[in-house]
């Protein structure tokens, strides 16, 4: 018995000594961002509104992230992240989900990459939001409408995700478990994206499929960005989506848009975008972005399915007051015809002007 106690004590001392030298950290982080925005044609009477709302590029959020060094280049990692409405103080989702944006834990290795499990951003959202979209998948409808069909699928519950970087090659893959007894594929998802960077050019191709009660939503992206210099980047790409779930027609609509009498079971969208990001002076950054979408088999106002074209342009100027705080102004215009008439509350065009402030902590 004495030998057993002595051995156990030695083991505890060894463990406590290792813990004392382990590198670990937990960080509270986030950003707060809001705008005052003027927007035309916001109802059936074509009235304009002035309202406070979300930021142009970045919804307000806060979170906790941490890592623990396990040795040999391997760390345990986690992230818990919530999105909030700064102007109301509410959680920014319809279900009052506490950690809407991310809730995961996993292992990361400096050589082999990172494997995480939980609720996570999809690979598509990672690359478009962080690298390839000029407005980082903007928050205003007029800036992000081409992504509305994939909007419900930018995050995935019960998912396993891998991210790895190998000499200019960036890989991401995700699988979301459907959790339906007797049907492993139902309500599941998978997505993969492959990027490669050489000199100033970075290009990406990705695919994502979501199953919704046995019906499929697919999205394919081909994207590129070229940096002429540290101060100037050009961006462009193609986003192709096919929706068999019937949700894309509804997800495309703005708040207050007319009620649809049916939804398409095979809507197809081909969207193209171009943009530039220019660091004009150390504190001043200017972004110009244009989006175009051709929809087929989309729900029309009244009845039936048809085609439609929508396009928009946005100018954004951001001025840094410090490393953490900036003010900005933006102007945008959008216009649609055909099936896209169902997405406007009033006339088939809108102009928006907004000013905002963002602080990062």
Automatic annotation (TrEMBL):
Gene3D superfamilies: Porin (2.40.160.10)
One of the GO biological process terms: monoatomic ion transport
Database matches in InterPro entries: Gram-neg_bact_OMP, Gram_neg_porin_domain, Porin_dom_sf
GO cellular component, one term: cell outer membrane
CDD domains referenced in this protein's UniProt entry, alphabetically: gram_neg_porins
Name by which UniProt lists this protein: Porin
Protein's membrane topology: Multi-pass membrane protein
Sorted UniProt keywords: Cell outer membrane, Ion transport, Membrane, Porin, Signal, Transmembrane, Transmembrane beta strand, Transport
Signal sequence segment: 1-22
Oligomeric and partner information: Homotrimer.
Residue ranges annotated for the Porin domain, each copy included: 10-338
Gene Ontology MF terms in the entry: porin activity
Pfam families in alphabetical order: Porin_4
Localisation per UniProt entry: Cell outer membrane
